[in-house]
Write a structure and sequence with these properties.
This protein folds into two domains: 3-12 and 251-362, D-Maltodextrin-Binding Protein, domain 2, CATH 3.40.190; 25-50 and 94-244, 2-Layer Sandwich (Fructose-1,6-Bisphosphatase, Chain A, domain 1). It has 367 residues and is α+β, with helices and mostly antiparallel strands. Residues 10-72 and 80-96 have low confidence and may be disordered. A seven-stranded mixed beta sheet has the order 3-4-5-6-7-8-9, sandwiched between helices. Strands 11-10-12-14-13 form a five-stranded mixed beta sheet, sandwiched between helices. It has a two-stranded antiparallel sheet with strand order 1-2. Helices cover 33% and strands 19% of the residues. α1 (3-9) packs across α13 (355-362) and α2 (38-45) packs across α5 (106-132). Its cofactor is Mg(2+).
Length: 367
């Protein structure tokens, strides 16, 4: 398949924690499938986040290692304009609430409200454990770390989903999959556990809903960063203080690798994937490279702050919530083999304009 054919084949929210002011946690116990007023109640109650700084762009957490090949380089003037013009290329502040979806998508809207309320409660739990540093760290069979906070957070999410969406399946990182419904919630209680255990505030709870093989809802909540992002299929990608006061996200319009900013997690996995040479070539071709890592790379992409993100080995729960946020912002999310969505075991995400160029470097084994 040529690059053109592959592209043509792709479907084209202060310092206080992010917590709900709705006040009625019982709302999450309602199964909207049997309560036609649930969506209306959610809209009236809202899912308000206390932070007033949430809509401001975060400075990020750049890698301290300097890239000697690119540190003195600058993008061309057109590339700089494309990456730094917020009103035109990186979304604009919404004067009104996010647009109301069509009738067929209102159930997903209710699911998004539920995800927000669950995230509000889980954020309080995980932020308290992160601040207290009162957890022990274990090593799982795959040699990755896990803490009591991971398990407590996933247990809390599953309990809420069990009450509110008891007929749905749930797939998570720390516990066995439950149910066989075509509607499956995919959750990562703490994405960025290595950061969490070392006191680095770049970690988040990821909540997604997959329906009939498509990710239709995605939410990423990073309480230590006072940031939250979300998307519903067909409803755009958003970040902000609440569902009714948010900024719509848009990827950049950078169209040349020489002007592009690339984010990744580490280099070791690329050697295992036999694509290290291709990754190094891509890094050299780009204007700027930084290892923001994990969910943060993809949220920066959706905001238009970076143009590319890639990881050679990921699980479904690592990616599912990210996909609709990236794609609804105008980006493209595939595997290294051009499979759209989070099902290919790895990720290449771009502002769409650069996807073909990235795949020229990463799409085949080079080692």
């Amino acid at each position: 398949m040529t690059t053109g054919e592959a592209l043509a084949d792709l479907d084209r929210p202060t310092d206080e924690p992010l917590s709900s002011l709705a006040g009625d946690s019982a709302l999450i116990d309602v199964d909207v499938a049997h309560d036609p007023l649930a969506g209306t109640r959610d809209l009236l109650n809202g899912c308000f986040l206390r932070s007033t700084a949430i809509s401001q762009a975060s400075a990020g957490y750049p890698c301290t290692r300097k890239d000697t090949r690119t540190q003195n380089r600058s993008p061309s003037a057109p590339g700089l304009r494309a990456s730094l013009t917020p009103a035109r290329y990186r979304g604009v502040m919404s004067d009104t609430a996010a647009p109301t979806p069509p009738v067929t998508e209102r159930r997903w809207r209710d699911d998004l409200h539920l995800a927000h309320m669950i995230a509000d409660q889980v954020d309080r739990l995980t932020q308290a454990r992160f601040d207290a540093r009162d957890f022990t760290v274990e090593t799982k069979p795959d040699l990755t770390p896990v803490t009591e906070a991971d398990r407590e957070a996933e247990r809390a999410i599953r309990e809420h989903l069990g009450r509110a969406r008891g007929r749905d399946s749930v797939l998570g990182e720390e516990m066995p999959t439950t149910g066989r419904s075509p509607r499956q919630w995919v959750i990562d209680p703490i994405d960025g556990t290595k950061n969490f255990v070392r006191g680095v505030p770049v970690w988040a709870t990821l909540i997604a809903l997959v329906e009939d093989g498509q990710v239709v809802v995605g939410l990423v909540s990073a309480p230590a960063m006072t940031r939250r992002w979300w998307a519903v299929k067909g409803g755009g990608a958003w970040t902000g203080r609440s569902l009714s006061s948010a900024r719509r996200l848009s990827v950049s319009r950078v169209s040349h690798l020489a002007d592009a900013s690339l984010s990744y997690s580490s280099l070791s996995g690329w050697a295992t994937a036999k694509r290290l040479r291709g990754m190094l070539g891509l890094m050299q071709a780009c204007w700027r490279t930084r290892a923001y890592g994990d969910f943060w790379s993809y949220m920066l992409l959706a905001e238009g702050a970076v143009d590319l993100a890639a990881e050679p080995e990921l699980e479904l729960y690592d990616m599912a919530a990210l996909v609709p946020i990236v794609t609804e912002a105008g980006g493209t999310f595939t595997s290294l083999s051009w499979q759209a969505g989070p099902f290919g075991g790895n990720a290449v995400a771009s502002n769409t304009l650069l996807h073909g160029a990235v795949m020229e470097h990463l799409g085949t084994e080079t080692d």
